[in-house]
Design brief:
The structure holds 2 protein chains of 2 kinds. Chain A has helices spanning 12-35, 40-62, 71-87, 92-114, 119-139, 141-144, 170-192, 195-205, 207-212, 217-243, 253-266, 274-292, 296-310, 314-325, 336-340; strands at residues 150-151, 158-160, 163-165, 245-246. By secondary structure, chain A is mostly helical. Chain A has one domain (12-326). In chain A, the strands form 2 sheets. Chain A has a two-stranded antiparallel ribbon. In chain A, strands 2-3 form a two-stranded antiparallel sheet. In chain A, a hairpin with a 2-residue loop joins strand 2 (158-160) and strand 3 (163-165). In chain A, helix 8 crosses helix 10. The radius of gyration of chain A is 20 Å and the shape is globular. The two termini of chain A are 28 Å apart. Chain B has 11 helices and 10 strands. In chain B, strand 1 (4-13) and strand 2 form a beta hairpin. The longest helix of chain B has 14 residues, at 149-162. Chain B is globular and about 55 Å long. The interface between A and B is large, with 37 and 42 residues. Bound molecules: adenosine-5'-triphosphate (ATP) and magnesium ion.
């Protein structure tokens, strides 16, 4: 069976083929989405959730830290983006930076409290902090607009090298989100294969051994939390632009549960691509199944239960198995270094 | 003063006293052995010496500097390395990564967020060197779980060696090994003793008496006898125990 950390270096094809497929799918999406009866806004949503999911899986899959309150950082990113537009300046880069930094700061504070904990205590604390942020967004009326949230958040134009592109259309905003998604994929791929990322995975496997190898474990857990909160903040900033608003529901426990479900169903515990697959599966269920029946969430929930019980490796694990049956995947890892020798 | 010294260590769990006034001294370049019956407190003693448990009382010094109260990760970075009685590896990772993660040059790169690992020939070469020493170079790119029991024990030692320690603590390295694997391990320890200070807990008396320069016997959380293998063979405590008989045979 595959696992997240077993094959450290794959063949170039294995590394770059999925990335190329993804880039091709994204760059052509505005053409084929309407062609298969879907709509442009869906592309934006999917890209945003993929960024959120990839960042979340650094924590959930790679570090093995079970955060069940991660919606909070998506919401903080969304609010920070909106507040920046409304109180500082109408600026895309400023707003996104505000979203990333605000979520990172919240993550840094929460991370400091929880990174010495493990297991159920860790999970419970993440939920508790998530609820604190959600509650604050409801009650801090003067800042957040209470239950209504921040309305009328503009989509600032993209300024790049003195040029300006309007992002008012969903297609334009989609391309921006797709760009950030591809950047997230590349960054995350580097990150999980960097020394920092490998130590993180070692800590997941055996915390005691990692300490005896000389690593200050809680700092790595803290850093993973902060980084993953920052990606959530980026996703939140884009979400505020997409919805042109930010409201408490964005950071609700429901959102936190959704991201866990997506990542698990997709196979985030065994594959880098798990979160991406999970997001696709969810939105296919919502928009295709949802078109057929009102009760789609029930079916999705049952599929989630079946997955957890029968195939905890998720969709990525099933694809790997199918690929292997076809003779495509070798049992032994293909080592890039061997090519040099 | 000895290279590594522990004085008057006390440790109890609740009302259960596990270490009672233990003092040990390990000299540089020597192989020191620790023996004693099951439940005597040997592993607990290692846990205290390497920082996993804090002693209730007592002092621990490495090269004359106190290391009592430091965390395992601090003590590890000061040059104290250990293996575990119950195997403790990164099972999802390949063999070479288990070793790589313990290399000091990997540790200094721990905050590299974008750098490479497996395409870094310096790291790979250093780790391969270590694997060579424990006879696992050929299995470098296989998953740690695919190793046989004996190979996993060898990897345990490899991981401890990778840190290039000043002193190496091995908790029952022969446990569960067949006679051939035990012979290989003895040869390995003989090679290692040229470069390292070694302390090992062992139940296999033949193995221990053959390799150790000095041996301490722990019973009921106390050191009840100490000396060279020859001195211990004459000791009535050791003679009386079934363990001693085996070694004398
Ligand atoms: N964390 C703990 N809490 C309570 N009691 C403990 C703890 N760790 C060890 N003990 C007890 O301390 C005693 C000594 O255990 P230890 O593992 O040090 O023995 P040992 O000499 O290594 O034995 P063996 O030869 O079987 O490995 C045992 O009775 C054990 O039950
Ligand atoms: Mg023991």
């Amino acid at each position: 069976m595959i696992s997240l950390s077993d094959i450290p270096v794959r063949s170039r094809f294995q590394v770059y083929a999925p990335m190329a497929v993804m880039a091709a799918a994204l760059s052509t999406a505005p053409w084929w989405l309407p062609a298969i009866g879907l709509y442009q806004y869906l592309g934006i949503e999917i890209a945003i959730w993929m960024i959120f999911a990839l960042g979340f899986n650094l924590l959930f899959g790679y570090a093995g830290l079970h955060s069940f309150g991660h919606g909070a950082y998506l919401g903080i990113g969304a609010y920070a983006f909106g507040l920046f537009q409304q109180n500082v300046a109408v600026s895309l880069w400023g707003g996104l930076a505000a979203g990333i930094l605000a979520a990172g700061l919240a993550g840094a504070i929460v991370g400091a409290f929880i990174s010495h904990r493990r297991g159920i205590y860790y999970a419970l604390l993440t939920i508790a902090f998530g609820q604190v942020f959600w509650f604050t967004s409801m009650k801090l009326y003067g800042v957040t607009g209470g239950e209504d949230g921040l309305l009328g958040i503009p989509r600032p134009p993209l300024t790049l090298f003195g040029l300006e592109y309007a992002l008012r259309s969903n297609v334009a905003l989609f391309y921006l989100a797709a760009f950030f998604l591809l950047a997230t994929v590349l960054l995350m791929w580097r990150l999980v294969n960097s020394p920092f990322g490998r130590v993180l995975q070692a800590i997941r496997q055996n915390e005691t051994r990692a300490r005896f190898a000389g690593y200050e474990v809680w700092r790595f857990k803290w850093a993973a939390f902060v980084i993953s909160a920052m990606f959530a903040g980026l996703a939140g900033g884009l979400f505020a632009m997409a919805q042109q608003s930010a409201y408490p529901d964005v950071m609700s426990l429901h959102q936190s549960g959704l991201i866990v479900m997506m990542v698990l169903v997709g196979g985030g515990l065994v594959s880098f691509w798990g979160p991406v697959l999970g997001v696709i599966l969810y939105f296919v269920a919502r928009d295709v199944l949802g078109g057929l029946t009102e009760t789609w969430l029930l079916w999705y929930g049952m599929m989630f239960m079946a997955m957890v019980m029968l195939r905890p490796e998720g969709l990525a694990g099933m694809i790997h198995l199918g690929w292997k049956r076809l003779g495509g995947a070798s049992e032994k890892p293909v080592i890039l270094l061997a090519e040099k020798a | 003063m000895a290279f590594f010294e522990a004085r008057n260590l006390h440790k109890r769990f609740g009302s259960r006293v596990v270490l009672e006034n233990i003092s040990l001294a390990f000299e540089r370049g020597q192989v020191s052995g620790i023996m004693g019956p099951n439940g005597a407190g040997k592993t607990t003693c290692f846990h205290v010496l390497t920082g996993l448990h804090q002693p209730d009382r007592g002092e621990i010094e490495l090269e004359g500097k106190s290391i009592s109260g430091l965390s395992p990760q601090r003590i590890a970075t000061l040059g104290v390395s250990r293996s575990f009685q119950i195997m403790n590896l990164f099972d999802d990772s390949v063999v070479i990564e288990n070793v790589m993660l313990a290399l000091p040059e990997f540790r200094t790169r721990r905050l590299s967020f974008l750098g490479g690992v497996f395409d870094d020939t310096k790291l790979v070469d250093a780790a391969t060197d270590v694997l060579d020493q424990v006879g696992l170079a050929a299995r470098a790119w296989e998953k740690a779980t695919s190793l046989s029991y004996g190979e996993r024990r060898a990897l345990e030692i490899g991981v401890a060696l990778a840190a290039r320690p000043k002193i190496l603590f091995l908790d029952e390295p022969t446990s569960g090994l067949g006679s051939e694997a035990t012979r290989n391990l003895a040869a390995l320890v003989r090679r290692l003793r040229e470069h390292y200070t070694i302390v090992m807990i062992e139940h296999d008396m033949r193995f221990l008496f053959e390799l150790a320069d000095r041996i301490s016997v722990i019973h009921w959380g106390q050191v009840i006898a100490e000396g060279t293998p020859a001195e211990l063979q004459a000791n009535k405590w050791v003679r009386r125990s079934a363990l001693g008989e085996a070694a004398l045979a």
